[in-house]
Amino acid sequence: MGGQLMVATTNPGKLAELNRILAAGHVDVELISLAGLDAPAVRETGATFAANALLKAHAIAEFSGLPTVADDSGLCADALNGMPGVLSARWSGRGATDERNLQLLLDQLADTPAARRGAHFTCAAALVLPSGREHVAEGTMNGRLLTAPRGTAGFGYDPVFVPDKSELTTAEMTAEAKDAISHRGRALRALAPVIAALLG
Ligand code: IMP
């Protein structure tokens, strides 16, 4: 039996995704989420995805006393010089929702022709041990942005994002198909051997 690993999320979908990826890599650890725990809220003040993932992982490792994985991710649109980037979740300001963020992005790109609608998602996944030792892995998914939403799976900007070599938006894919190519899947698969070496 491997050790315990805290996952700095209350989102059951994220926990299940990491569980699938670690199981596929035969990494034997027991995942624990923040659901039901009175964890400190961590402000995402970093300028990069890696900085924010590390901020969260350090704070929760300190809170829990356990090795902790945290991730931070977002959409970078070429025509917006890489924005919304680390501001993806908060793009439409106070009270931001996925719907408002998506609509604002579409409005901002209303006059941007297909040739300049390239974008990518990036995810940084950080592992921090109680000793303070840290490791970060990143994953990217390249694609392009549509002018209107399509599909109902996924979340966030998925309904307008078509990955390279795909005709479907990530909101029209199964969770498994998206995991195989997604920024988060890639970052977590890159981190899995490090988790195995340190904890498995
Ligand atoms: P967080 O890493 O959970 O804080 O997510 C940051 C934000 O980036 C989310 O609220 C979404 O707006 C966006 N985002 C990150 N990953 C995805 C994805 O796989 N699909 C759609 N939107 C995403």
Keywords:
200 residues, alpha/beta, 6 strands, 32% helix, binds inosinic acid
Task: Describe, in plain words, how this protein is organized in 3D.
- The protein has a 6-stranded mixed β-sheet.
- The chain has 200 residues and is α/β, with parallel strands linked by helices.
- It has 5 helices and 6 strands, in the order E-H-E-H-E-H-E-E-E-H-H.
- Residues 71-75, 88-89, 101, 121, 154-158, 170, 182 line the site of inosinic acid.
Could you give a quick summary of the protein structure above?
The chain is 32% helix and 22% strand.
Taking the sheet with the most strands, its summary is: 6 strands, mixed
Radius of gyration: 17 Å
Q: What's the N-to-C terminus distance?
A: 8 Å
> Structural class given helices, strands, pairing?
alpha/beta
The main sheet orders its strands as 2-1-3-4-5-6
Count of alpha and pi helical runs: 5
Helix coverage percent: 25-40%
Distinct bound molecules:
inosinic acid
Order of helices and strands: EHEHEHEEEHH
Query: Which consecutive residue ranges, at least 5 long each, have pLDDT under 50?
Result: none
Oligomeric state, counting identical vs distinct chains: single chain
Question: Could you say which overall geometry the principal axes of the C-alpha atoms support?
Answer: globular
- Per DSSP, what share of the residues sits in E-state strands of 2 or more residues? 15-25%
Number of strands: 6
What is the overall pLDDT average? 95
